[in-house]
Write a structure and sequence with these properties.
Helix content is 79%, strand content 0%. The chain is mainly alpha-helical. Helix 6 crosses helix 8. The protein is elongated.
Length: 262
């Protein structure tokens, strides 16, 4: 099977694993719901006060005649809100993982142990506070990279024809890559693999990364889908990590046995 297919299979297997572990799934929804409320409040605030912010930032347009002033500021307001939506998609996973770090760490360990031939999972040698600090620091560094890509793609979107065809497709692949990095970071960080080696590892098998992350990015466009898919996405990213590192997997009986573990 090609790497694209393997990545997509990891995504589906993660959701399937989560569906068999209902108790874990219920807890996994909480971080996504908290992040959803925060993002919804931020977007509502942007919609309500975005026009005022644009007016404050463009005092040079105060003396422009109608309709140019309204058209100019209306365009900038739309651009501001669209950029906010794009950044929301790019950053939702990072914020949700940060909010739910302790649970997702436990969930990832369970998946590792569930599919491992010897029933064990790699353990972090660092205290929880240190893991949280590294996760927050690395998430911020990834978000900066993602934001730069987002701004670049947004600007390229104004190019005739290319901006309406190739750029949106490229945007989903870029988003898929960063989604995969953020999700796989839970399992990779437990193995002591830091940000730069993680990015290098993912770049060496980009089709695998895209096969997992790009369909997930598309699914996240569906309202509230990210909240319900996030626990399974973390499980699938753990399976993806094992594929990237060439770690073996146990049989289905081991997976079924894990259904009884709380």
């Amino acid at each position: 099977m090609s790497d694209l297919g393997v990545g997509f299979r990891c995504l589906l297997e993660g959701q399937r694993w989560m569906a068999r572990h209902g108790r874990q799934y219920g807890f996994g929804l909480l971080p996504g719901l908290i992040a959803l409320v925060l993002y919804a409040a931020a977007l509502v605030a942007l919609a309500v006060w975005g026009e005022d912010a644009v007016t404050w930032a463009t005092p040079f347009a105060d003396d422009w005649s109608s309709p140019w002033q309204g058209l100019f500021r209306g365009f900038l307001t739309a651009v501001l809100f669209a950029l906010g939506l794009l950044l929301s998609v790019l950053t939702f996973t990072a914020v949700t993982l940060l909010v739910g770090q302790p649970f997702y760490e436990h969930l990832s360990e369970k998946v590792d142990a569930d599919v491992s031939p010897d029933g064990t999972a790699p353990q972090s040698s660092l205290p929880l506070w240190r893991d949280l600090w590294i996760s927050a620091r690395d998430s911020l560094r990834v978000l900066v990279r993602a934001a730069l890509w987002g701004v670049l793609l947004f600007v390229l979107g104004f190019l005739p024809f290319v901006g309406q065809t190739a750029v949106p497709v490229l945007g989903f692949f870029v988003t898929g890559f960063f989604l995969t990095e953020e999700l796989a970071a839970v399992a990779l960080q437990r193995r002591g693999i830091e940000l730069r080696p993680r990015l290098t590892l993912l770049r060496t098998r980009k089709p695998l990364t895209w096969g997992f992350g790009t369909p997930l990015a598309l699914a996240f466009l569906i309202p509230f889908a990210a909240v319900f898919l996030m626990p399974g996405a973390v499980a699938g990213a753990t399976l993806l990590t094992r594929e990237l590192l060439g770690e073996g997997a146990g049989d289905d009986s081991a997976s079924d046995a894990g259904d009884t573990v709380p």
